[in-house]
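In keeping with the milestone schedule agreed at the kick-off meeting, the structural modelling team has produced records for the first pair of proteins. Each record is given below as a sequence line and a structure-token line. The laboratory manager (R.T.) confirmed that both were archived under the project's standard naming scheme.
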Amino acid sequence: MNKIFLKFYQKKLFTLKEATKIIKNYQVCKNTLKRLISKNQIKRIRNRIYYIVPLDNPDFYPNHIEIASNITQDATIACTSALTARSLWQAEDTLFLLGSYAKTIRIKETTYKILENPYNFGFEEIEYNTGYSTIDLKITDIERTIIDCLRTKSIPFVDLQKILKERNLEISIKKMIKYLEKYKKPILYNKVGLILDMSKDNLKISENDLTDIRKKLSKKTFYLKEKGLRLIKPKYKYYNKWNIMIPEKVFELIPSEALTIKS
């Protein structure tokens, strides 16, 4: 049995770079991979990414998040995909990752959306179970994940708010403000403040924490726009505490007593 096949049998997914550590001669390694593909012992996903075809499961296909983490050498799982990696959200047919350049890659029925990332902050590694092995996965931390989800509108606001309201998450307000300052997008203060305010009891966030964010609000009134929702009244209502126009379905989730707080 070929040593590449044996080496990666448990891991399943591997890259050309990893394979060349087993067979150090590049051309010999490439020829070996071609031979293994012809024997249907491995399959190529794209370019330099391959996976083992298990002896007892010829229909096997690797975990989509693991594929995403290998799409580029500097890939970082982000947005809703970072939520999925934490078992907070079920990914759909689009996976998000950060890289050195923006690009969209389609592999079978899945879209891998690479977002250009000029910011070197908010990363961490977690142990991630693919279903067939455990890997070290580089993802955005929870603070940056929340901000990026709001920034990209990659998840409906009410769904993200439900996660924050119902799951036991530890959020650092200092980190959130630090990250927001780096993004330099005024609307994010309004969005982040609103969603944390609506989830503050579960997140154990104090009014003083929220005040620190409110101090950063600009005088401009922003809209909490969502994908697929047109900017037509009366679908939006004004919430003075965060100086933002929000969809009625979000407005209805705000406790009546909170609406009396003056900005």
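The second protein of the pair:
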Amino acid sequence: MKKILLRACLFLACATINAQVTYTLDTLTNVDSLIAPLNKESFTSGVLYDRVVPIANLTSFNTATNNVSSLPHFEQALYELYRAAKKTKFNSVANARKAYVSLARKNKVDIGIINAQLHRLNFNAENNQLGALKLTNKTLTPINDKALFLEKDLLLIAPLKKLAIGQEITYAFKEDLFFEESSKKIVTLTAQFDGQGSHTIIQNSQFINKEVAIGYATTGPKTLTFTATYTNGSQTTTKGSLYVSVASANAMRNPDEGIEDGNITATLPFTGYEPGDLPILGQLDYCIFDLSTPYLYLLPHLAFR
């Protein structure tokens, strides 16, 4: 009984609300009915970003002011792309998480990779002339000879934990966490881990380095820099971020003993405060562990995945 009560208390202490937003409102029918009469010759990706609420702001990613991703951003991006493709491409966040290394392996971090092409309608609601379409009586009508759909190439790479703990962190690259839906395939991918030299991860379109171990001397935020070279010879550089806590050897012992982690998704949505607000399904990440193992020092950090 004592152990059950202890686990229940630790469950409450460790649970944190996940930032991932899940909308129950299905906008697919509305948007697809609007574009039904349009010439879709320039819509080649099958990924229409107008189908989702663009929280991840993917159309402005890979720019000078927006080019660093992280676990929450990666999951939000994957969620939006999966929905924008009408669930026919990419993967759901829930399924992707099944490939993540356990939270118990606090000194190992998976890297998620998204190489994608997406489209959005060339529509400017404030000034139609800046786009190619106008909306009248719930009908989109072309108004000039501009492209009706705008294409965006996206490279997004992120560590799939917010916090890693250890004097040496192993970064892992997996086929299951590599989402490529683009005519521009990645031929070569190199990585720099907080400025500690360059490592070739993909060469000739094949993973040649699936794990890279990096030593850290100081605790703090770390930036990972990735450069992809594509089949057409062009390149894109993007970044990912996480926090590394350099732990003592004693704190790092028995990394897999006595830990269980998981997540729960609400069945009833929060419907908002105003008419028209989008319903949101809350999500909860939790950790359960036994006090017989030396993990109490982790309590302040369990909000980090």
